[in-house]
Amino acid sequence: MQYRNLGKSGLKVSALSFGAWVTFGKQVGDPVARKLLHTAYDAGINFFDNAESYADGQAEVVMGAILKKSGWRRSSYLVSSKVFFGADGDRPNEEGLSRKHMAEACHDALRRLQVDYLDLYYCHRPDPAVQIEESCRAMHDLITQGKVLYWGTSEWSAAQIEAAHAVCDRLLLHHPVVEQPEYNLFHRSRVEKEYAPLYRSPGLGTTIWSPLASGLLTGKYNKGVPKGARLDTPGMEWLRDAILKKPGIERRLAAVPKLAAIAKGIGSSLPCLAVAWCLRNPNISTVILGASRVEQLQENLGALGVLEKLSPQVMRDVDALSGPLAD
Ligand code: NDP
Q1: What is the CATH number of the domain that holds 17?
Q2: Taking CB atoms and a 6 Å cutoff, what residues make up the pocket around ligand 1?
């Protein structure tokens, strides 16, 4: 495993990390979740990603039980939660970035994950209904209370991240250190262009999600939706439509076998090539992997070995195919 600094913070995060979205508490049973987390940890992964909204809080319950039983030193791993979408309640103040919900969601995450503090706590989306000062102050207070060590954002615009830093400068609050954006061969613009000025100053770290575009970049959706796959999961119809009914999907699907042929040419699988391509970007602190089966995770861990095979010519070939199709 390689370890990278999370932006300008002193925190070391494994270049590959592991997340619980869709799978824990929903798509896979607890024994599979346990094997996945143990496989990740044994491979040197030190960051496990979660959120209040994943399986309405159940993903944190499942992960917390595994962490508790594992016997792993608390200092040997990082665990996150995210606040915004809410868990099981939908009454006023049970979602969003108000001080009340942020504090209560943090307490709930600590209880479900059975830990004393969160290493990383994210504002899962911007909340236009709340003053940014209120959310920054709430994060700062959770840090000074010892309940959170570092805070960040997910899918905030560069302007919103800069506004949060300006507030933290003015009010002498703990600054956000990380953003969690989508990044993969078919989704690049925000990470590569919009955030570009933020990597030097204030020194943004990135924990990127959906490196395989929810499985599109494995080739599994080229002949329809396989039974049991993520886009076949009950409750994920919105994601199936968002991916498979998106304008340009035919051209993306047509590029997938060509990308797989490039992967084969360097002795890689397509998932490993797609993950390694993300890792090649020096502004990526960690690529969060998702998996519904241990074999998938084991395969994707091979991406580290593919990194050195991404010659300038291979990168040009990959970019010529996927770049024009990317958001
Ligand atoms: P991916 O894009 O890598 O999708 C993972 C899914 O792809 C797996 O669950 C599996 O789905 C399929 N898959 C993975 N590897 C293989 C393989 N080798 N062969 C075949 N199929 C494979 O990542 P995620 O979308 O899961 O994102 C990773 C993490 O990022 C999440 O768990 C979550 O922690 C975080 N995230 C954060 C978001 C945010 O808003 N901040 C949003 C989304 C994710 P299946 O087998 O079911 O088809």
Answers
A1: 3.20.20.100
A2: 19-21, 23, 27, 49, 154-155, 180, 209-215, 218, 220, 229-230, 271, 288-292, 296, 299-300
